[in-house]
């Protein structure tokens, strides 16, 4: 459990120090300025026309009816500091009882020392432990204890009233009363989970001046340590600079040798593979196509940025195309079957007509031949055969017509399905075009930035470097950094070069610049300069 802490401190006669501290007109070194706004002042209102704690104390003294002369050395104010440890105060704050705790402390001070004697109060939240200051004017009415010499002396003056008010801090701060204050204060704070401190404890409160004095002693020691460390740091800095200079010199020499070796190897290989005429022609053609290649790559990156939507549309289109091909094939198959059925129907009709003609001919022949009277059974069989054929032809015709109606119905359904799919595809395309239009409308710089991103990737910059360059800031490449020249498929040294992404007024798009020059032009210039240097080294013009 936490303790209820009560300190009673005598203020000096000028009141300036305690007033500055309580009202925070001067900030102590141990106060956190970032938390000063949490402090609360004027928790006890001053009388009308009174501003400031010092004036409130003097107003109380002058209006208390004191007749005895007050000396300059008398204590005019007592500073009551009320708090607990950090844990105890934090529990009060977290439980939302801080305002109640403040009110109970002010009430306890008024009940204990007199309501009129409590002239000011402030809550400090900007120091290590939150605490409450209450200013009490030590005016008492109890009879003054006479000294031994006064008791034995003969009376020379008339007797004064026993309970007249007087200013006396010693009466309030008697040892017995101080212990009693701790008892009754702990009883008032018990409801907040605070208990009385240990009786007879040797622990004592460190005063503000003593605390500041200890801080100054520690500060002076720290300043001496800092001075000694600064001297050591300067020595180490000198040694470090010397070593860094040596390392930088060695790195420069190593880089120069590596660069020269690399240049010689590249040029020798290039000379063996190409002659001057083919090299020149290749360079010219590469330069002519570079702008087209860059533009194509930019468009490819733009499409790649929207690849997910394009792939989805492509899949839908592919599915629609497959459905269209399938429906077309089925339609053709149905049409072929319809034609076949029609042919069969025509053949059946033709066979029926031929059979009818043959039957009519036979009938005529039977009519003219009396002998056929005896062959009546054969005629009936022929007629029955003809009737059967007619029935088969009629059935085939009905099946063909039903098949044709089914085919027309299915073709109509397929046409409706194809029309709906085409409408859905058109809606999807319009949605896609609307999204692309909004993207270009509201993010024009994002589209204009694509050529610069492509160029950064072409010359071998990593993703983190590209993200840094997109902030439009200028960066200096480290020693030993190389950039890839795609037209020659070679690395070009770019140590110390300044790189930045800037808008080019010629096409109003962003491009990568090195030392103020477009990247590919700079790489071309570097490559030509390197080639000329190597050729001069070999005596080639």
Oligomer classification: single chain
Identify the CATH class of the domain at 4-144 and 163-199.
Alpha Beta
Tell me about the largest β-sheet.
4 strands, antiparallel
Poorly predicted spans? 370-375
Helix content: 55-70%
Q: What is the tally of helical segments?
A: 15
Please tell me the CATH architecture of the domain at 4-144 and 163-199 by its name: 2-Layer Sandwich
| Number of separate strands | 14
- Terminal Cα span: 95 Å
Mean pLDDT across every amino acid position: 80
Percent of residues in beta strands: 5-15%
Numbering strands along the chain, what is their spatial order in the largest sheet? 2-3-5-4
Structural class: alpha+beta
- Rg from alpha-carbon coordinates: 55 Å
SSE ordering: EEHHEHHEEEHEHHEHHHHHHHEEEEEEH
C-alpha geometry: elongated
Task: Predict the CATH topology of the domain at 4-144 and 163-199.
Answer: BirA Bifunctional Protein, domain 2
Describe the 3D structure.
The chain is α+β, with helices and mostly antiparallel strands. The protein has helices spanning 16-23, 53-62, 86-94, 98-113, 148-152, 169-172, 175-189, 208-273, 276-305, 307-368, 376-442, 444-448, 450-458, 463-469, 519-537, and strands at 2-3, 5-10, 78-83, 118-124, 131-136, 139-140, 166-167, 194-195, 475-476, 482-485, 490-493, 498-504, 509-514, 517-518. The strands form five sheets. It has a four-stranded antiparallel β-sheet with strand order 2-3-5-4, sandwiched between helices. It has a four-stranded antiparallel β-sheet with strand order 9-12-13-14. A two-stranded parallel sheet has the order 1-8. Residues 219-288 form a coiled coil.
């Amino acid at each position: 459990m936490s303790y209820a802490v009560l300190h009673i401190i005598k203020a000096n006669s000028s009141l300036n120090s305690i007033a500055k501290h309580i009202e925070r007109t001067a900030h102590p070194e141990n106060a956190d300025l970032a938390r000063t706004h949490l402090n609360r002042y004027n928790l006890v209102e001053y009388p009308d026309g009174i501003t400031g704690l010092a004036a409130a104390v003097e107003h109380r003294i002058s209006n208390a009816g004191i007749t005895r002369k007050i000396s300059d050395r008398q204590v005019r104010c007592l500073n009551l500091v009320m708090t607990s440890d950090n844990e105890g105060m934090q529990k009060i704050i977290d439980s939302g009882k801080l305002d109640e705790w403040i009110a109970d402390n002010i009430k306890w001070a008024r009940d204990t020392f007199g309501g009129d004697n409590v002239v000011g109060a402030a809550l400090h939240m900007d120091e290590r432990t939150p605490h409450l200051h209450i200013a009490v004017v030590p005016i008492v009415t109890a009879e003054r204890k006479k000294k031994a010499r006064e008791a034995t002396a003969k009376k020379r003056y008339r007797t004064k009233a026993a309970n007249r008010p007087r200013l006396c801090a010693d009466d309030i701060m008697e040892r017995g009363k101080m212990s009693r204050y701790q008892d009754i204060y702990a009883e008032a704070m018990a409801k907040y989970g605070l208990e009385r401190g240990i009786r007879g404890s040797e622990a004592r409160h460190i005063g503000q001046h003593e605390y500041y004095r200890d801080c100054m002693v520690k500060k002076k020691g720290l300043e001496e340590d800092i001075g000694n460390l600064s001297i050591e740091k300067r020595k180490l800095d000198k040694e470090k600079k010397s070593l860094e200079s040596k390392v930088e010199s060695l790195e420069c020499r190593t880089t120069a040798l590596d660069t020269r070796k690399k240049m010689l190897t590249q040029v020798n290989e290039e000379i063996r593979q190409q002659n001057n005429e083919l090299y020149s022609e290749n360079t010219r053609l590469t330069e002519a196509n570079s702008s087209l290649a860059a533009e194509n790559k930019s468009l490819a990156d733009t499409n790649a940025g929207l690849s997910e939507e394009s792939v989805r549309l492509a899949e839908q289109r592919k599915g629609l195309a497959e459905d269209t091909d399938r429906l077309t094939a089925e339609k053709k198959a149905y049409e072929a079957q319809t034609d076949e059925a029609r042919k069969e129907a025509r053949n059946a009709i033709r066979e029926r007509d031929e059979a009818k003609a043959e039957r009519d001919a036979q009938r005529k022949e039977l009519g003219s031949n009396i002998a056929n009277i005896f062959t009546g059974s054969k005629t009936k069989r022929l007629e029955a055969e003809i009737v059967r054929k007619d029935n088969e032809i009629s059935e085939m015709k009905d099946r063909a017509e039903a098949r044709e109606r089914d085919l027309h119905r299915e073709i109509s359904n397929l046409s409706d399905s194809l029309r709906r799919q085409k409408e859905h595809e058109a809606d999807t395309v319009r949605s896609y075009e609307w999204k692309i239009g909004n993207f270009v409308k509201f993010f024009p710089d994002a589209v204009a930035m694509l050529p610069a991103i492509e160029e950064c990737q072409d010359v071998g910059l990593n993703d983190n470097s590209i993200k840094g360059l997109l902030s439009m800031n200028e960066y200096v490449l480290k020693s030993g950094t190389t950039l890839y020249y795609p037209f020659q498929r070679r690395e070009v040294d770019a140590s110390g070069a300044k790189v930045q992404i800037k808008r080019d007024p010629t096409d109003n798009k962003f491009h990568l610049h090195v030392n103020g020059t477009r990247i590919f032009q700079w790489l071309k210039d570097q490559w030509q300069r390197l080639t000329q240097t190597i050729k001069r080294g070999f005596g080639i013009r």
